Amino acid sequence: MSITLRGIGCAGGIAIGHVHLVSETTVDVVHLVLPEEDIPAELARFDAAIRETRKQLEMLWGSIPDNAPAELGSFLSLHIMILNDAALSRDPRQLIEEQHCNAEWALMQQLEILLAQFDEIEEDYLRERRADVIQVADRVLKVLAGHPVSHAHGQLATDRDTILVAHDLSPADMVQYKDIEFAAFVTDAGGATSHTAILARSLGIPAVVAMHNARELMKEGELVVVDGSAGTVIIEPDADELAHYQKLLQQWQRQQKQLAGTKSAEAITACGVPIELQGNIELPQDVPDMQDFGARSVGLFRSEFLFLASEELPTEDEQFEAYREVAVALNGQPVTIRTLDIGTDKLPKWFERSGGLNPAMGLCGVRLSLAQPHLFQTQLRALLRASAFGCIQIMFPLLSSVAQVRQCLQHVTLAKQSLRDEGIAFDEQVKMGGMVEIPAAALNVAGFLGLLDFVSVGTNDLVQYTLGVDRGDDSVAHLYNPAHPAVLQLLSHTIRTANALGKPVSVCGEMAGDPRFTRLLLGFGLRRFSMHPASLLAVKQVVRQSSLAELTAQTDAILACTDEEQVTPLLEQLNA
Ligand SMILES: C=C(OP(=O)(O)O)C(=O)O
């Protein structure tokens, strides 16, 4: 019998395929197939992780305070015993040798074998030791995660009909997944505008997040249907369901093909107004795909992904090369590069969070750059140097005060002076912009535009900060509502103010790539949208079918709503 599970659909479309469980522990594990010559290094990596874990446990055991409960000592010595058992410290080596897999995958397979044996045990005490075995394996996995296998040679064992099922996938994992083939992904955690969900959309494959217990209910290799629009996953569909979804899949593929036929069409409204559709990218290698979808310029280059993809802090030269590559590839068209925006869920390996209960309210975005002048100067110099090779615009994330804008511009002046002193060329006229992501920035956008050349609205964060809802937390995902009247008022105010001041304004959050909001934003006066390229054609289709004069009355009515429940039917009418 089939089972239907519900989560949050974060990237539309249908996929029918077989489950690949990414992990059973708190550390998500991928399956890599390694070349023969890498096996000795992988065995050494596994042995080193066992040694390091043993050292950690022995240190903990040796530092137990006198007044600690006696159970703590026995708990730790039990964990050392489990670790020393050949079943954990030796048998995975054999799997690495036989299957040419990575150490994490070998350990997970061995863990599954051990856990299956526990299922047979009737005696309570021994059965409870199951959790201890998982905890020890988890500890080894965390050590391995601190010394990751080089993915340069390994390949994830997936194919075109693989459905990846994970507890959560970090933005850093998703960067790696950009290069492999799979049909859809499903996670226990996450919200619709978490960074992982955004990256999923950029891959153009269906995705469902916030399934809570997906991994417990699915088995490796099982047939499932993922409906990314409805946010459902059907495990072992029956023949009727399968036939129904196969039909939907074909329909979806036909629609995608039809949309692909509009690639070369201009983004122009039915009444003849040109609308600028730009791409959001994470890495320089995203440019060709973006151009393939018909975008000529980049409205948001999330530069932090260069930092996430790298084991160490990228140097000025490394950053310069990446920015220059994009500038050159765009052949004179603008690329808006956002300075480092980390500190919440996007955490590079080299970054140590400084604590704080609410990371999204803490030292993140431009606050972090301003607090670490060396980091900021390195990035600004790299950006300015690259500006000599194309049309680079610099944008600062998470601004909340005009004083911060002033500080950012002082840093730019300093970086420019240092380049001049060294005789290094750059574009003296580089445009400076800011993200509107915090209500304070939206309400005071005129103040920001007094100093800046342009603004771009990051609706993902604007919704989060306006409604006080963590965008990555599925337990409050039902409260995350981009169509909330307060959000719409802030958006409209920002767009109208910038237009009145004659300064460019764009939206680069997920609302820009969601065709349900295209007409509303056009009605608010928006003429520049930046989105993940996979959404570009669907948005363009709506633009081409819209007449601006016809939208005004309806969008004004939506803006006048004070109750979010009034907005939904009016939005549906607007899109009908
Ligand atoms: C574009 C945005 O930034 P982020 O990369 O945080 O999604 C946003 O907040 O809308």
Automatic annotation (TrEMBL):
* Catalytic site positions: H195, C508
Query: Which residues does phosphoenolpyruvate bind?
Result: R302, R338, N460, D461, R471
Which UniProt keywords are listed? Cytoplasm, Kinase, Magnesium, Metal-binding, Phosphotransferase system, Pyruvate, Sugar transport, Transferase, Transport
Task: Quote the EC number.
Answer: 2.7.3.9
Q: Which residues cross the membrane?
A: none
Q: Where is the PEP-utilising enzyme C-terminal domain positioned along the sequence?
A: 258-546
Q: Which cofactor does it need?
A: Mg(2+)
Catalysed reactions, as listed in the record: L-histidyl-[protein] + phosphoenolpyruvate = N(pros)-phospho-L-histidyl-[protein] + pyruvate
**Where does it localize?**
Cytoplasm
Q: The Phosphotransferase system enzyme I N-terminal domain covers which part of the protein? A: 6-129
- Residues that hold Mg(2+) according to the record: E437, D461
Any single Gene Ontology cellular-component annotation: cytoplasm
Read off the SUPFAM superfamilies from this record: Enzyme I of the PEP:sugar phosphotransferase system HPr-binding (sub)domain, Phosphoenolpyruvate/pyruvate domain, Phosphohistidine domain
Q: Which GO BP terms sit in this record?
A: phosphoenolpyruvate-dependent sugar phosphotransferase system
The entry lists its GO molecular-function terms as: kinase activity; metal ion binding; phosphoenolpyruvate-protein phosphotransferase activity
Q: Which residues form the PEP-utilising enzyme mobile domain?
A: 160-231
Function recorded in the entry = General (non sugar-specific) component of the phosphoenolpyruvate-dependent sugar phosphotransferase system (sugar PTS). This major carbohydrate active-transport system catalyzes the phosphorylation of incoming sugar substrates concomitantly with their translocation across the cell membrane. Enzyme I transfers the phosphoryl group from phosphoenolpyruvate (PEP) to the phosphoryl carrier protein (HPr).
Task: Fetch the PANTHER family from UniProt.
Answer: PHOSPHOENOLPYRUVATE-PROTEIN PHOSPHOTRANSFERASE (PTHR46244)
Family, per entry: Belongs to the PEP-utilizing enzyme family.
Question: What NCBIfam families does this protein map onto?
Answer: PTS_I_fam
Stated name of the protein: Phosphoenolpyruvate-protein phosphotransferase
Species in which this protein is naturally found: Leeia aquatica
